[in-house]
Amino acid sequence: MRGLMMDRPLLISGLIEYAGEYHGDTELVSRTVEGPIHRYTYAEANRRSKQLANAMTRLGIGMSDRVATLAWNTYRHFELYFGISGIGAVMHTLNPRLFPDQLRYMVNHAEDRIVCVDLTFVPLAEKMAALWPTVKHYIVLTDREHMPQTSLPNALCYEELLAAEKPEFTWPSFDENTASSLCYTSGTTGNPKGSLYSHRSTVLHSMAACTANAIGFSVEDCILPIVPMFHVNAWGVPYSAAFAGAKLVFPGPKLDGASVCELMEAEGVTFGLGVPTVWLGCLQYLEQTGKRLGTVKRVLCGGSAVPLAMIATFQERYGIEFLQGWGMTEMSPLGTVSRPKRKHAALAPSARHAIRAKQGLPIFGVECKVVGFDGKIAPHDGVTRGELHVRGPWVIDSYYKDEAATKAAFDADGWFKTGDVVVIDPDGYVQIVDRSKDVIKSGGEWISSIDVENAVMAHPDVAEAAVIGLPHPKWDERPLLIVVAKQGRSPTSGAMIDFLKDKLAKWQLPDDVVFVPEIPHGGTGKILKTRLREMFKEHRLPTA
Ligand code: AMP
């Protein structure tokens, strides 16, 4: 017997329509690419998204056509999220930090028809245009006054396009499984792989993100997504903020600690979201200036492992609740969020911080299993390691037009293989030990590079640290610790090792320490371990 309930499609247009109608006077604030702060409301954002929908339709964009963006987090990018997907077209966010060859591949693979470009990225698009034959129009995301001289073919001005259109538009209704947006991940080898989200997956992900155990946005929040809108749709924040009717603040191109902290203070941000390097920048700024973040109640950090020291600093020095999230582009991205349970309330602060340092509890909708190296399902005992496999309504079930990548990424039962090596403890918290390719195999034992990095990050002279395995004649691989010292500090190798001695087992201690001015990061802020392995391939460990 079928239930007698309405079968209404879950569509992205419903989110902006809801926010426009019921949170119409709630503000969206942007630090623009042109410079000044821009403010308007959800009601205006909805109206302009409809003008954009009319403009896209006039340019010949229809169901399933791909429209790319090369843009920072601003209100115009927000409008593209709704105006493109809302008409059934597919918004393809390009990450401008990727290599030109990857950008060439992605636009051609996606067969993008239009590229919408922020002023900052016009020179990049000009360089790429000859390699992007499918692109018929470029829309520069600015007004007539700031429109640059450009060699881009068929360059249009965004504000002029919108001004020519009426705000009347009825969002079309279609199957909720229709593709809505496309985001590529760039592995270190091979071509980028596309995750093609649907309206259904996106709306369900937003609803799940807004539950109290997950991110938990509400009408009382003022949200600052520092995570770029070109990386997994800024973790879905533009959608979930509209779902919650929360105030949104977009940081534009300025992502340094001072700019981010000043914006949080000026706009009364209650909830910030970003990768660890962004929060490190903020903490350094606060430390140098002695300032505090008066309005911020919570931050969410994820994308790579979060140092325990950072959690303790936010919680204790600044009184800000620190949440860690784990996820992947292939998962929209949210998989787990780390919060202590009710039963942990009586624990000492340090024990509660240790719980927050785990990647967290799976949110409802994301099913997890750990497949041990013997192929058996690992128990939730907090020690048995294995690869994390997941499934759920916002997890991909294949890569976009890429059979080889799809074949490699799923197990025989159709679960997605994350490539993350984890343990799950008896309370259900997932803890990442390492990426399977970064774990250091030393004499039959495993050393988690994340554990060592985490331990050394607590040293007051350390700004950033990374650990890689180097070949070793006796032990197979041994760890090399690479450290960026804080400005004005000059720690020694010996001091680093001494500091780690009571935090790690003897065999986990790095065999050598090198100091570098900076550690290379990839297009999404993650430490580029492949680059580090390349840089240090000639390095001889003193123990080898
Ligand atoms: P991406 O698809 O680029 O977002 O990368 C996803 C990968 O980032 C995951 O498979 C993890 O290896 C890593 N990652 C994401 N969040 C965390 C986290 N909280 N702690 C450790 N690693 C993380």
Structure in words:
- With 544 residues, the protein is an alpha/beta fold.
- It has three domains: 242 residues, ANL, N-terminal domain (Rossmann fold), CATH 3.40.50.12780; 74 residues, Luciferase, Domain 3 (Luciferase, domain 3), CATH 2.30.38.10; 96 residues, ANL, C-terminal domain (GMP Synthetase, Chain A, domain 3), CATH 3.30.300.30.
- Helix content is 29%, strand content 24%.
- It contains 17 helices and 25 strands.
- Strands 2-1-11-10-12-13-14-15-16 form a nine-stranded mixed sheet, with helices on both faces.
- α11 links the parallel β12 and β13.
- α2 crosses α3, α7 packs across α9 and α10 packs across α11.
- The protein binds adenosine monophosphate.
- Adenosine monophosphate binds next to β14, β19 and β20.
Describe, in short, the structure shown:
This protein has 544 residues and is α/β, with parallel strands linked by helices. 29% of the residues lie in helices and 24% in strands. Helix 12 (308-317) packs across helix 13 (349-356).
